[in-house]
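User: Hey, quick favor. My workstation is busy. Could you predict this chain's structure for me?
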Amino acid sequence: REDVVVNGDDRENILKNAPERKDGAFVVPKTFEE
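Assistant: No problem, here it is.
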């Protein structure tokens, strides 16, 4: 199959179900400690 380009500019719709977000991006919890 060929890849299909879709509109990814709908940031609010994409992030509306994110458990946590900051500055328009998903917040990912740390998986290890330093």
